[in-house]
Write a structure and sequence with these properties.
By secondary structure, the chain is an alpha+beta fold. Strands 5, 6, 7, 8 and 9 form a 5-stranded antiparallel beta sheet that branches. Strand 6 and strand 7 form a beta hairpin. It starts with a strand and ends with a strand.
């Protein structure tokens, strides 16, 4: 059994319990969801759910068929190969001295991150990008002392029409 990375976009009814039903189907198949993001869609009353998961092809086909049977699920699409993928990350990092502050600000500029909060002791930095970009930025900041990290998980949209 070969597990592959998949990004699934679903359009669902904006109702309580839908997220639990969808996540439960993946759980019952033994797939660990890497990330799941849910938010309003372009259609009033519907939400877009983006799920990233490592799954074998046959198992994923089964989950997709079962998802299609749920009344609350309107549309499902595997957008793995044709998607713009992004993640949002907030990082609170220590500022031990002025030299460190200048270095961190320079890293933020290089990575096109935004400093969204400043105190004498810490900076909170906002960064969007793919997983690798965010991991690289966090790796650079570790030497300064990271206080907190909050990541949204993957969100994605298929390219083109």
């Amino acid at each position: 059994m070969t597990f592959e990375y998949h990004v699934i976009s679903t359009l669902v009814e904006d109702k309580p319990g839908v997220l639990q039903k969808v996540a439960g189907l993946f759980n019952r198949r033994g797939f660990n969801i890497d990330s799941i993001t849910v938010g309003e869609s372009e259609v009033e009353g519907l939400s877009r759910m983006v799920i990233s998961v490592h799954a074998d092809k046959k198992g994923l086909e089964q989950v997709t068929k079962q998802l299609n049977k749920l009344v609350d699920v309107i549309k499902i699409k595997d957008i793995t190969k044709n998607a713009v993928k992004r993640e949002l990350c907030l990082v609170k990092v220590n500022i031990p001295n002025e030299k460190a502050r200048a270095e961190i600000m320079q890293y933020s500029n290089i990575f096109r991150a935004k400093i969204v909060d400043v105190t004498e002791e810490t900076l909170i930095i906002e960064l969007t990008g793919d997983k690798e970009k965010i991991d690289a930025f966090i790796s650079l900041l570790k030497g300064y002392g990271i206080k907190k990290i909050s990541r949204t998980g993957l969100t994605a949209m298929a390219r083109g029409v």
